[in-house]
Inverse folding.
């Protein structure tokens, strides 16, 4: 198989889909790997490293997309990349389709096989390819929030951990999953007063045990969320419904009671955000105010720490990339139900029900499409 590694072109996105070690693993499997020139530069991997690992360096992104059977990326394609996608091509990347109707339409129209990192599952029902970036984003949410609480950055002028005789900042984390847990680790470590909100009481018990009662936990409801954020200095949106649009849990009206200069970091922005006033921002222009509250809603937060993120991501994605390359798409998904769960578009159809529901478009089960494909091939 020909595997293509293009350079990411999203605003200030410095990650890359494969490390040189990943390229070597694919090359050792007798696959041809073509890498766009300088694709790994932002993560500290120069072209010579890829060449020593067996890759061929290509000057043009158009040529990488045109030649590759499978494209391995980090972020979803953006408008300039749409014309490069072609029928039958495997696209292995984060897609986050639920809030992105335009990309969904393009994948369907161009009959691209879109395999989304964020919906691949493991045997326990976890999300192994989403987890590493959720860990990074959760930890970053607190350091970013701490920065923007500084007066010169536009915040209230509060030190997250306080000092003796002065209260620490009040941090409210909505969602007790991977993002929320990692955010809480950093916030507790910095000395903040942390409240975590989740709708799963068993998860709240686990969190109480994990943090040895150093955090407060609240069962999620509109009333409790409103009450908690009314006294918050930093609010972290950390809600996830796999593959679907994030539920909107904080309304604009609630923000009227949040102190001026408080900070919101909505990590759920990739899936539309869990705060009504959220809209995606970029590293070039990361913040805005609504109701006096500073919003940080960068949709590719881990791109700010690309070397850490690229290693963490490739550790998780490489086994699946190898399986797709070694077995081919159909045999790979037949051998791995979790990988099959990652297929969001195939043969001109939306094959992930949560995406179809979010966009109110037709959903077609993957099994039925595969039967048709197999019958046609026979």
């Amino acid at each position: 198989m020909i595997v293509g590694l293009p350079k990411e072109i999203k605003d200030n996105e410095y990650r890359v889909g494969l490390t040189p070690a990943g390229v070597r693993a694919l090359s050792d499997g007798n696959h041809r790997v073509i890498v766009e020139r300088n694709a790994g530069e932002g993560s500290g991997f120069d072209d010579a490293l890829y060449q020593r690992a067996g890759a061929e360096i290509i000057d043009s992104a158009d040529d990488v997309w045109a030649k590759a059977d499978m494209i391995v990326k980090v972020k979803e394609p953006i408008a300039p990349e749409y014309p490069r996608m072609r029928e039958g091509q495997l696209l292995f990347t984060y897609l986050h389709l639920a809030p992105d109707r335009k990309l969904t339409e393009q994948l369907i129209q161009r009959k691209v096989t879109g395999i989304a990192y964020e919906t691949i599952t493991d045997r326990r029902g976890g999300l192994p390819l989403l987890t590493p970036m959720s860990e990074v984003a959760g930890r970053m949410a607190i350091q970013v929030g701490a920065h923007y609480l500084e007066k010169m950055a536009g915040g209230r002028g509060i030190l997250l951990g306080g000092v003796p005789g002065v209260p620490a900042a009040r941090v409210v984390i909505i969602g007790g999953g991977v993002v929320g847990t990692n955010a809480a680790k950093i916030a507790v470590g910095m000395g903040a007063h942390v409240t975590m909100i989740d709708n799963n009481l068993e998860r709240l018990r686990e969190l109480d045990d994990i943090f040895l009662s150093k955090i407060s936990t609240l069962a999620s409801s509109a009333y409790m969320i409103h009450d908690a954020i009314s006294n918050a200095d930093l609010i972290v949106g950390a809600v996830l419904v796999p593959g679907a649009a994030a539920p909107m849990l904080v309304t604009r009206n609630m923000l009227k009671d949040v102190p001026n200069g408080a900070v919101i970091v909505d990590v759920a922005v990739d899936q539309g955000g869990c705060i009504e006033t959220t809209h995606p921002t970029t590293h070039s222009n990361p913040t805005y105010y609504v109701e006096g509250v500073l919003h940080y809603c960068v949709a590719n937060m881990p791109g700010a720490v690309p070397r850490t993120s690229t290693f963490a991501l490739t550790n998780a994605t490489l086994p699946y990339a190898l399986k797709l390359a070694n077995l081919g798409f159909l045999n790979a998904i037949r051998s791995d139900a979790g990988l099959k769960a990652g297929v969001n578009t195939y043969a001109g159809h939306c094959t992930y029900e949560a995406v179809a529901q979010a966009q109110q478009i037709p959903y077609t089960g993957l099994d039925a499409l595969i039967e048709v494909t197999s019958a046609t091939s026979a």
Q: What stands out?
A: The first helix runs from residue 20 to 28. The mean pLDDT is 95.
